[in-house]
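Hi R.,

Here's the chain you asked about this morning:
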Amino acid sequence: MFSEKRIDSTPLILGLTGGIGCGKSTVSKIFYALGSKCYNSDIEAKNILNFDTETVSDIKKTFGKDFYNSTGFNTKKMSELVFSDKSALEKLNSIVHPRVKLHFEKWVEWNKNEKLLIKEAAILIESGAYKGVDKIAVVTAPEELRIKRIISRDSLSKQEVEKRIKSQLSDEERLKYADFIISNNEKDLVIPQVLNIFNKLSIS
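And here is the predicted structure, written out as tokens:
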């Protein structure tokens, strides 16, 4: 059924998700190289947290002014809080997610002549944003490999990384929503997997 053309002229939206350290951004870059525009929800959320005046005000009222410093939003401080306090995470999400959703809808409108758009989001399922995409691709990787990648990338301890992984949805739960699975285990080639999805969606 994936080879059939869409009846209307709106873009087909592929949600791209996976746990921390699975390599979503690598996969997104491959789709981009194939000609698909990609929306990175995490990057846009950071932009909103730094530059949207209403959001900045709401964060300061909810969490305190010390979550901002001379360089802007203190991501490290907030991460330490929300990965240990579920209620704090829910409060943060209630402030940021509606604004990211609105921005994404505008982005889709700006790119309405595209055939395929990619929405990369770490918590695509948890946030309910999966309801706004047409298909879902889940990127997976062994936990030990993910831990190794995150330690190298973010200079965190193994214990901190394991805590963050456990705070997210498990791959088992995430895969229940998957139309496509991309294995990024450093054994299976990723590009052919992405190209196969690209071709199945008839974007060429």
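One quick note: Strands lie at 12-17, 37-40, 68-69, 72-73, 116-120, 135-140, 180-183.

Cheers,
M.
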